[in-house]
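wait is this the right file?? whatever heres the structure
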């Protein structure tokens, strides 16, 4: 396929493999996501979904269920460090409010709220399975500053 005719893919869904779907759902619900359990009660321990306002789906799956749809998934793969899932909030002040709500509920902080060099305010907390979850405001060009030196 030629690059001049290719349509870039759109992010449609993120599946997180979690130890306990109910515990993870409670975290994401507290964060403000509209978590819904699986339609069939027998699946409630294995799957939950949030459909975000932009149509992107966050799917929480038990390891047993994930191994059904991804047979190549292994315990080793699950133990590797992952990325950071960032959620945009309405304002810089909302970053602080959401961070405080999550850490007051006992979720570990990775990064206290900070004004980033790229112009956004952000913070990072940890979900019950150790996934890093970022909270970030829109970028304000008036708040941009030069970046720090690159890592050595």
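ok assuming it is, sequence goes like this
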């Amino acid at each position: 396929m030629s690059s001049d005719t290719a349509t870039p893919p759109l992010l449609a869904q993120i599946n997180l493999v979690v130890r306990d779907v109910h515990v993870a759902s409670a975290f994401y619900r507290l964060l403000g996501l509209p978590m819904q359990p699986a339609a069939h009660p027998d699946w409630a321990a294995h799957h939950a979904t949030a459909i975000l306002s932009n149509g992107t789906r966050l799917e929480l799956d038990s390891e047993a269920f994930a191994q059904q749809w991804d047979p190549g998934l292994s315990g080793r793969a699950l133990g590797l460090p992952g990325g950071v899932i960032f959620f945009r909030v309405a304002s810089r002040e909302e970053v602080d409010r959401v961070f405080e709500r999550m850490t007051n509920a006992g979720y570990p902080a990775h990064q206290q709220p900070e004004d980033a060099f790229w112009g956004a305010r952000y913070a990072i907390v940890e979900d019950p399975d150790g996934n890093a979850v970022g909270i970030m405001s829109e970028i304000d060009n008036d708040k941009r500053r030069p970046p720090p030196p690159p890592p050595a």
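The CA atoms of residues 22 and 45 lie 7 Å apart. so i think its the right one actually
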